[in-house]
Write a structure and sequence with these properties.
CATH topology of the largest domain: Spore Coat Polysaccharide Biosynthesis Protein SpsA, Chain A
Number of strands: 8
Number of domains: 2
Largest sheet: 8 strands, mixed
Shape: globular
Number of helices: 15
Strand order of the largest sheet: 3-2-1-4-7-6-8-5
Helix content: 40-55%
């Protein structure tokens, strides 16, 4: 029995580790573009709902961009704090910033998807950059992203910013974004195909060609979804348009959550459309549980196991740790999260099952005052 478990752990840890290493060679930061006579033009689109803590930083970083012509459109989505006041002050000093107000949320729409759809209709340029308000861009980020679109031929692309984490709960779970993305998605096959099965993206930072966005139906095609990271690339691929990924570690920084409770709710709000979907949760639980947690459970038994079995367990532990330690170096992730990898994976799986249990009971995680795509919580004081 132990021998079978050791073999299973080694296979299920080794496969993702090998793919992660291979994907690192393909998941690259867009290089700085050469000087151009005509600068690329972009519309930077920022949905904002109660973002007074973040909105000034994101706008300041966008306005400091180099090598592009741009406009910044902020859509206030019925904020109850000082978001509008801050944007109005910045817009008064820089005509590139435009504040718009979101219409009432229609039935059947998720708030973010509706905001992004409205923003796309307000944009003036052919390259659309959808960026969350908690992201801060580097000065060359937009020029590099525009260059990536030109070289790759993609109709939609996204990248994971460097994730800033401050609490242990964040450091355990947030860095798993890169681990899951690069350990289970074959980037080479993704780039050779437009099959929807290879749809993947990072909802924090998207860049799209306007014509392809409109053909695919844009965010309207995923109006009821909370998971644009998968949903938006899938709609493009269904329409026959290629999508791609780039490394945004040196292009942008994001601080998504401030506590373990925020991490739990944030990852749970759309888990039932990804790993926590009914058809996916059992396979992912087996893949991650047996490949990333089981080796560490078997490790204390190695002094009493036959040498060959002990070696397989040790190799499985090394394979499970390899992607996380490489990610510490490549993506500037915290070492403590990598060292506590099995605990982080166990917590991630717990979030997926929690989200599925909520879904099966007819409930969803409330996010920014909205219970789900058509319900809202009573408005409270800001």
């Amino acid at each position: 029995m132990i021998t079978a478990l050791a073999i299973t752990a080694l296979v299920l840890a080794g496969g993702p580790a090998a793919l992660f290493v291979l994907n690192l060679l393909r998941y690259r930061t867009p290089p700085a573009p050469p000087a151009a006579a005509v600068l690329p033009s972009l519309s930077v689109l920022v949905p904002a709902r109660d973002e007074e803590a973040n909105i000034e930083a994101i706008l300041g970083s966008v306005l400091a961009s180099e090598g592009v012509e741009l406009e910044v459109v902020v859509l206030d989505d019925h904020s109850q704090d000082h978001t509008v006041d801050i944007v109005q002050r910045i817009a008064a000093a820089d005509p590139r910033v435009r504040l718009e107000r979101a219409p009432p949320l229609p039935p059947g729409w998720n708030g973010k998807q509706h905001a992004c759809w409205v923003l796309a209709g307000l944009a003036r340029h052919e390259l659309l950059v959808f960026v969350d308000a908690d992201v801060v861009l580097e000065p060359t980020a937009l020029a590099r992203m525009a260059g990536f679109m030109e070289r790759s031929g993609a109709a939609l692309a996204s990248g994971a910013p460097r994730q800033r984490t401050t609490t242990l709960g964040e450091r355990l779970i947030v860095p798993l974004i890169h681990f899951v993305l690069l350990s289970f998605l074959p980037l080479g096959r993704m780039r050779r195909s437009t099959h929807p099965a290879y749809a993947s993206g990072i909802g924090q930072l998207f860049i799209a060609r306007r014509d392809a966005y409109q053909r695919a139906g844009g965010h309207a095609a995923i109006r009821g979804s909370r998971h644009d990271g998968i949903g938006l690339p899938r709609t493009f691929r269904i329409a026959g348009s290629p999508t791609d990924l780039f490394d945004a570690t040196q292009l942008a920084t994001c601080h998504m959550y401030g506590s373990f409770g925020d991490v739990w709710r944030g990852f749970a709000k759309n888990a039932d459309e990804g790993m926590g979907a009914p058809a996916a949760i059992v396979p992912f639980t087996l893949l991650l549980g047996l490949g990333q947690v089981l080796p560490f459970l078997l490790l204390p038994l190695t002094p009493w196991l036959p040498p060959g079995v002990s070696l397989m367990v040790i190799l499985a532990v090394g394979a499970a740790w390899t992607p996380r330690l490489l990610a510490v170096w490549r993506f500037e992730q915290p070492l403590v999260g990598a060292l506590m990898h099995p605990l982080g994976v166990a917590l991630l799986l717990a979030i997926q099952w929690y989200a599925l249990a909520l879904r099966l009971s007819g409930n969803r995680v409330a996010w920014k005052g909205r219970l789900d795509k058509s319900q809202t919580l009573p408005e409270g004081p800001s």
